[in-house]
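Running this now, will post back.
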Amino acid sequence: MSDSTYTVSQAQARLPRLLKEDSFAISVHGKIKGFYLSKERLEAMIETMELLGNPDFMAALKEHKSGKGKTYTIEELDKEFSK
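Update: finished.
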């Protein structure tokens, strides 16, 4: 078991401290039976799934990864959005 896996008894005894962690697993008889994910971690995962399901975002990401994406300076963006 990793450092982020706890038995039910360990998790019960350490719960206040464990809730400060980003994530951890709970095991029973050496088998993982559940996971805890912080609110922040879960929100980040949902946001990632939403972005990956957005065709416009995926097209922009593909363009960026290929090196064909355009970059703008802060000044250019300020000028464009202050119109």
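Strands lie at 5-7, 23-28, 31-37. More later if anyone needs it.
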